[in-house]
Amino acid sequence: MAHFAKLGANGKVIQVLTLDNDNMLNADGVEDEAVGQQYLEQHNNWPAQMWIQTSYNTSGGQHRNGGTPFRGNYAGIGYTWDEDDQIFWPKKPYASWVKHIESASWKSPIGDAPALTEEQTSQNEADTHSWHYVWNEANTTWDLTDSRA
Amino acid sequence: MQKKVLTEQSLFYGDIDMPKGFEIDQEKLTNDILQSSFTNKQFPFSRTWDMLNTYMRDFIGLDYGISLVNKDSWGDIYKPGQISKPLLNVDPVNLRNSPDFTMLYGVKVDKCWVRIHFDDNRRKGRSWDIELKKNMFVMFPSTNMYIVSNDQKDSLNFVQTITYEYI
């Protein structure tokens, strides 16, 4: 089963459809995205070039089963197709975050949240605290928070 | 102080902005409205109708997270100067099988006005008017009564209606 994202204006994903692999075979019997696009144009009344194949098993630039990742992420409604980087991007979580091509994800401008200390981790495990970092967009910092406090 | 919205009456409107070369074929819909009106038969399914319907379902889902399911569809013809009777697409004694939303689409229209009635708590009997232009839609809760008028003297107005449930 193949999956295709239907694109609207500005490359926004408006729908994701499945397509039987038999419907995207070319004359040589090889799966071909262009054949699938033509099939979808004919049967779904939407231009061929606005259907882009997506991989159900790809997420965060990784293939779930150890295969070759395809186009960064499995497309979802509201995702944006980036033709230059060949990646389906989820919605940007914060205005300051930037694209990280390798992991096909958005990263804060100062990188990932710091790791918790051993003490904080043990307190979380003991269930006396719930330490975690929360992104502070106003200060562009990771703020340590205890949601049990 | 906090606020909780228990219910809202949302009206959606705009143009059906199809990709170039895939525009809604108004002639086809006009013919189907004429045919179904004169033969008194169910509005026929067509590629054109499906394009309109899919566009609505896709974009309401994308922009507002509402999943629409079709209930019914028909076309109406309004004569020059005609004002419809008040229209209501829910059955008050069978709300379970009534639609949630009514969508009107301007197929072939000129000076076609839609007046949507609503209550604002104790302020009853308010209304909102919008001109339904060609290739434009307006969608509103089916519990709102509405009136369609053809405010010119020269031509018929063709309006497509599709009703939806949301899930």
Put simply, the count of helices of chain A is 2
Run of helices and strands of chain B: EHHEEEEEEE
Please state the oligomeric state of the protein chains shown. Answer: heterodimer
Shape summary of chain A:
elongated
Low-pLDDT residue intervals, each spanning 5 or more residues of chain A: none
Give the CA-CA distance, first to last residue of chain A: 48 Å
Characterize the main sheet of chain A. 3 strands, antiparallel
The pLDDT mean of chain B sits at 96
Structural Rg of chain A: 20 Å
**Uncertain residue ranges of chain B:** none
Indicate the percent of residues in helices of chain A: 10-25%
Q: In angstroms, what is the radius of gyration of chain B? A: 16 Å
Q: Can you tell me the overall shape of chain B? A: globular
Tell me the total number of β-strands of chain B: 8
Strand order of the largest sheet of chain A: 2-1-3
- Helix/strand/pairing category of chain A: alpha+beta
Keywords:
heterodimer; A: 149 residues; alpha+beta; three-stranded antiparallel sheet; two-stranded antiparallel ribbon; 2 helices; 30% strand; B: 167 residues; five-stranded antiparallel sheet
Give a quick summary of the entry.
Chain A has 149 residues and is of the alpha+beta class.
Structure description:
The complex is a heterodimer of chains A (149) and B (167). Helix content of chain A is 13%, strand content 30%. Chain A has two helices and eleven strands. Chain A is elongated and about 65 Å long. The model of chain A has no long low-confidence stretch (mean pLDDT 95). Chain B has two helices and eight strands; from the N terminus they run βααβββββββ. The mean pLDDT of chain B is 96. Chain B has a five-stranded antiparallel sheet. Chain B is of the alpha+beta class and 167 residues long. The chains are: A alpha+beta (149), B alpha+beta (167). The interface between A and B is medium-sized, with 13 and 12 residues.
